[in-house]
Design brief:
52% helix; alpha+beta
Length: 129
């Protein structure tokens, strides 16, 4: 059995291995970027939901501070302006029912795979103890 030295029949084989490794790495990095994008989108949605909750609670507390009566138009307009400033395109509604108040806020939320999905949050609060 004789070995031939100096002859390498696999010239260029390592270059193909490097290109395949780079392709696998690229696919992995694209997956990481996609997950990061989804994560940032969901953090934004979570922030919107927190803002909606705070605005609904603010309206309930304003009504309680007004002796459980409906607010004047200027107060409602100021609340709606603040709501629209923090959550663009959001709409709020307040409905009294006996000794409870329902604050409903509707807004568009960006979802994965969809440009906008309408969400609705309703807070029901008892006015009298």
């Amino acid at each position: 059995m004789a070995f031939v030295t100096g002859s390498t029949p696999h010239n260029g084989f390592t270059l193909i291995e490097v290109l395949v490794a780079l392709l696998v790495l690229l696919v992995g990095l694209l997956g990481v970027v996609g997950m990061q994008y989804l994560s940032l989108q969901q953090v934004n949605n979570s922030n919107l939901r927190s803002q909606v909750n705070l605005h609904a609670l603010e309206m309930v507390e304003m009504i309680r501070a007004n002796d459980n009566n409906a607010l004047v138009a200027a107060d409602v307009d100021a609340w709606e302006a603040a709501l629209d400033r923090d959550i663009p395109g959001a709409e709020g509604a307040v409905a009294f029912n006996a000794n409870t108040v329902n604050v409903t806020i509707t807004w568009d939320e960006r979802q994965y795979g969809s440009d906008a999905a309408e969400q609705t949050y309703t807070m029901t609060a008892r006015l009298e103890q």
